[in-house]
Amino acid sequence: MKYLCAILVLSAFFGSSHAGDWGKAVLDKTPIEECYDLGGEISSGYMTDYIYYGVRYARDSVWSDVNYTFDSLAFPITVGAWYLNSNDDAVGLDELDLYASVALGTYAGFDLDLGYTHFYFPESAGFHYGELALDIYRSLGFVDFIAEASYTFSGLGNQSGGWYYQAGVEKSFALTDATSLVLAAGVAYSDGYYSSPKIGLLNGGDSGFNHYYATASLPIALNCRATLTPYIGYNGSPDGWIVDEIDGGFGPQSDILHSGVTLTVSF
Length: 267
Prior knowledge:
The structure is a single chain. By secondary structure, this protein is an all-beta fold. The chain has one domain: Porin. 0% of the residues lie in helices and 55% in strands. It has a twelve-stranded antiparallel barrel with strand order 1-2-3-4-5-6-7-8-9-10-12-13. Strand 5 and strand 6 form a beta hairpin. It is globular.
């Protein structure tokens, strides 16, 4: 909460004793809170490889994101837009994601968020599709559990979409007052996701383990509003796993070592 820098107090007492001098304000000594959060956030970053659901779609990419959270509602709602541009001439990917999510609250110890994202690809003849996702979070004390279940909408008559599931753990270690080390690892499973009409990277048969991942990030608080986060990650897909068979534009996928950096500013 943001407090007033000074509070004017008018005191009137009957009798011979009173606090302070008559007619003078009693000053509030509470420190001014300089980083009042209005609910907005702007982020920008660079990534050596753009990997989505285990598949590399582009290299050498920059991205930006802006979002705002309406937290005064019964269920906080976040709306935002994310845009990526690849500097790799071999692919030249442009992607615009418009999204909204609602924080449903805590049930049986699990925090639930329900969101919808619509994906646009301006350089692909207006190609677009939508996706619904349920995000799940729970602190287990020594680690945090994070999971996601997503369904893609085909938007093509009665043709159905596909499901994607991911689960993992995350652990944060405080290194200094301003710096932390965050380690995360997990595994994903897909059920018809990549052979759905809107994704179309496989000709059916893509039900099984998708990929596994491990990341290490280093959030550095530059001040009370800005955080700089470099990271490094590993994306693995053993023989027989779904992603190992997929060509996202760079040939069949295998093991990928990738990195990047993000700057986030709240307002």
